Amino acid sequence: MQDEQAFIKDLLDPKTQNVAFQTLLSSYQKPIYNHVRNIVLNHDDADDVLQNTFVKVFKNLKNFKGESKLFSWVYRIATNEAITFLNAKAKRNGMTSADFQQKQVENLQADSYFEGDEIQLKLQKAIALLPEKQQLVFKMRYFEELKYEELSEILDTSVGALKASYHHAVKKIEEYMLKN
């Protein structure tokens, strides 16, 4: 993608906005889908959240202040949309978010888009037991290989706190994997 400042200018200019937004979609759609899918676990839900994310990005472009990278801003919106989606779905099903996450993991094997084996399924079960923040940090660091600095921008948390969250998550996952 071109220089970010020029690109943002194109996104905000009504004359170039549509072409620039198509560029944004083609550049960010796959990584944002993967990120959302790691959170919501279900393909159809991930598609819904992805669509909501890009609608929200488009509507709020004028509010982007450039205090973070555009990618981090889009990621933050996607993360919030995914969490909001999960919480709403859990509430609709009369469950806590944690119980709903467990149910989602149990349904993974039936998902035709899930390509994992037994170990991958066990890992997903271990992750679902973590507190929400540790889940996010672990998934974004482990599966998406984001740097702590990027996580800090996306989650608006200090690098030190993120390292601690990741460390605690890894320890809990290791314990689960050994016991089960």
Summary of the model, kept short:
The protein is an all-alpha fold and 180 residues long.
What labels would you give this structure?
single chain, 180 residues, mainly alpha, Rna Polymerase Sigma Factor, Chain: A, Arc Repressor Mutant, subunit A, 2 domains, 9 helices
Question: Would you mind describing this structure in some detail?
Answer:
- The protein has 180 residues and is mainly α.
- It folds into two domains: 1-95, Rna Polymerase Sigma Factor, Chain: A (Orthogonal Bundle); 116-180, Arc Repressor Mutant, subunit A.
- Helices cover 76% and strands 0% of the residues.
- The protein contains nine helices and no strands.
- It has helices at 4-12, 17-40, 43-60, 70-92, 97-107, 118-128, 132-142, 148-155, 159-179.
- α2 (17-40) runs antiparallel to α3 (43-60) and α3 packs across α4 (70-92).
- It is globular.
- The termini are far apart.
- The mean pLDDT is 91.
- Residues 25-90 form the RNA polymerase sigma-70 region domain.
- Pfam families: Sigma70_r2, Sigma70_r4_2.
- Keywords: Sigma factor, Transcription, Transcription regulation.
- It comes from Flavobacterium qiangtangense.
- This is RNA polymerase sigma factor.
